[in-house]
Amino acid sequence: MQKLSMIIPNHIQKIMDELSLNGYEVYIVGGAVRDSIMKVPVHDYDLSTNATIQEMQEVFKDYVIINNNGLKHSTITLRYNHENIEISSFKVDDGEEESINTDLSHRDFTINALAYNSQVGLVDPFLGLSDIEKGIIRTVGKASDRFTEDPLRILRAIRFLGKYNFKITAETKEEMFNLMSLLDNISKERIKTELEGIMVSDNIREILIEYKSIFGQIIPELILTFDFNQNHRCHVHDVYTHIAYVVGYTKPDFRLRMAALFHDIAKPQTYTEILKDGVIQGRFLTHPDVGSLIAQSIMKRYRFSNDEITEIKYLIEKHDGLLPSTKKAVRKVLAQAPNQSYDVFEKLIDLKNADRSDHLYLDSVKVDELLQIAKAIIEENECLKVTDLNINGHDLMKLGLSGKSIKETLNHLLYKVINEELDNEKNALLEEVKNSVMN
User: Fold this and answer.
1) How many CB atoms lie within 10 A of CB 405?
2) How many CB atoms lie within 10 A of CB 428?
3) What is the dihedral of CA 117, 123, 128, 132, to 10 degrees?
4) Are the beta carbons of 114 and 122 closer than 8 angstroms?
């Protein structure tokens, strides 16, 4: 056993003491130990013990226990000190010795096959500490066994690669590619959870390129973009490589980066050619709208929330238009954003800028200036939606309008105000209705 000075929060130590005082072994295991070694803030503590689930339930009968399907996995979850703390019985197969070493042998990667308590110190039977120091990710035992047990570990390895910028060993990487088809058997919700971690990695561009066949396995719609020549003077990369570069240029926000991943997904389906200056060039005129629909299908398959789908579709649909350069143009873009959100507007500008950054002959834009204009519009409560108009349906009903015509008239007025063709003043709005709508 190796020495490790790990600071254990008082409420975690109290739970461990409860088990120890009742004669059971108990260890902090997995990510909490790994992150403590790496001087990374620890947010979750998982415990492992030789107590059975029935024995744990007896020890903690005066605590709040959340079952969470615990009987199936020999796990209880305590709600204590405003946290959920998971405690599991040692993982052992029939005929195996019931010990912490055996439990750790069933874990995914050596950097996670670590345990600690203050009496014993660090338990590290698979040299996880050495692998942390070397910056490598490898499985506990045969990689084929670990990935067959739970294929999601293939994506988890990529997530750790992104989170810590470690290297995956050759044997582990080989089996990730060999067994990636097993990901088809994993629930879409579990895959999405891993994607949420992977997509915000600092080295996401390199990850997308190196592991593109694995991304193609979980998102087959991407495969058509692999090595697809854009045949355009502004592009030096094939479609998929361009996508990877654009994702890498964006800020590490999950929704933004998923929009970047999908922004050109429809280019192969929308490819046409024109002769320009004696040279054949590729065009993709409808790719934002077609891509939005493809992305929607993927996101529904992966159980994205309605808010996520709405925002990501908007970013895809608007990524290819001209950049707003005036206050009026910014106002129009803000008005179209879901909930007229400044946050979404900022993501759109970031996506447009990232896209331009992987084009030849296109300069990046002055993002700060555009964001300042947008902030001013928001702060000044300028009219961006129908409810911001200084006129409402009741006013229009008094003029004799009804039903569908009320909605159409309000939208007409909003368009005029946003485009600076009409002041948002009640008398001016009423005059417009009388002169242009009712005549």
Assistant:
1) 13
2) 15
3) 40
4) yes
Q: How many CB atoms lie within 10 A of CB 365?
A: 16
Nearest to 77 by CA among 100, 29, 106, 45: 45
Which has the closest alpha carbon to 90: 49, 147, 137, 30?
49
| Paired residues of 66 in beta bridges | 77
Query: Cα separation of 346 and 371, whole Å?
Result: 7
CB 264 within 8 A of CB 316: no
User: Encoding tokens for residue 427?
Assistant: 């008398």
Rounded Cα gap, residues 232 and 382, in angstroms: 40
- pLDDT tens for 80-119 read 988 899 999 999 888 888 999 999 999 999 999 999 999 9
Each residue's pLDDT tens digit, 119-158: 999 999 999 999 999 999 999 999 999 999 999 999 999 9
Residues 6 or more apart in contact with residue 276 via CB below 8 angstroms = none
Read off the amino acid at residue 99: S
Answer for the pair 179, 151: CB distance below 8 angstroms, yes or no: yes
DSSP string, 178-207: HTGGGGGGS-HHHHHHHHHHHTT-TTHHHH
* Sole residue written with tokens 């991943």: 261
Question: Which helix (H) or strand (E) segment is 20 a member of?
Answer: helix 10-21
Of the chain, the percentage scoring pLDDT greater than 70 comes to 96
Least confident range of 161-170, 210-219, 273-282: 273-282
Max mean pLDDT range (64-73, 268-277, 300-309): 300-309
The number of residues in the chain equals 439
pLDDT level of residue 352 (50, 70, 90 thresholds): very high
Specify the pTM: 0.90
Which residues, other chains included, contact 17 with Cβ-Cβ below 8 Å and sequence gap of 6+? none
3-state SS, residue 361: coil
